[in-house]
Amino acid sequence: LLGDEKLLGWFREKAIDVEKTLNCDYRWSPYEWTLPAGRRCQFRKTSQWLRQAANQLDDEAEEEDDDVADEKFASFKGRVLATMVIVLRLLDLEGSFSFHPRHELTLFCSIPASPLTCWLEQASARLLNPRAAYERFQHQRIDSIADDDQTGTNAISAAFNATIDKSGIFDAL
Predict the structure, then answer these.
(1) pLDDT of res. 99
(2) pLDDT in tens, 92-138
(3) Is 77 exposed, middle or buried (0-12, 13-18, 19+ CB in 10 A)?
(4) DSSP characters for 58-72?
(5) Nearest CA to 76 among 93, 54, 98, 55?
(6) Which residues of 98-109 are buried (b: 16+ CB within 10 A; e: fewer)?
(7) Residue 60: C-alpha distances to residues 12, 55, 65, 71, 81 (Å)
(8) Where are the alpha helices (DSSP H) in the chain?
């Protein structure tokens, strides 16, 4: 990107901050990162379990009021997202990320193309990182993607927070 003078000219013409774009769209966006194909298969069982649980909720929802079904799914989603954060915290406590100075490494969870993206990235980064790493992430990523649309986050964040609180592993923070 930095070697493409035509593209850089276009960025300047449109008054787009190149550093902010690189940080937000490339450095911090996990959807731009490559994951070796062999590593993807490690997530198959988890994906199958989540699909099965969601399908079961969907089957149960056929017999329920739409609002009740939506609330149950939001609660399920919040618990799943919290579990992702809890697992990263446990891995961190076990030293799984000790290959790199912890204050330079930023852990967070994300969801692609969702109204929950900003909320989840911010909440997970706040819980998982030393203050300096979180503040850098907040400035370079969250401030760039933040919007006012937090549609649907209330029930999900309530279940997320309840699961985080119940885990007890963040009590010292």
Answers:
(1) 86
(2) 999 999 888 888 899 999 988 888 989 999 999 999 999 999 999 99
(3) buried
(4) HHHHTTS-HHHHHHH
(5) 54
(6) eeeeeeeebbbb
(7) 54, 9, 10, 13, 21
(8) 5-13, 18-21, 37-40, 44-61, 66-93, 117-128, 131-137, 143-145, 153-167
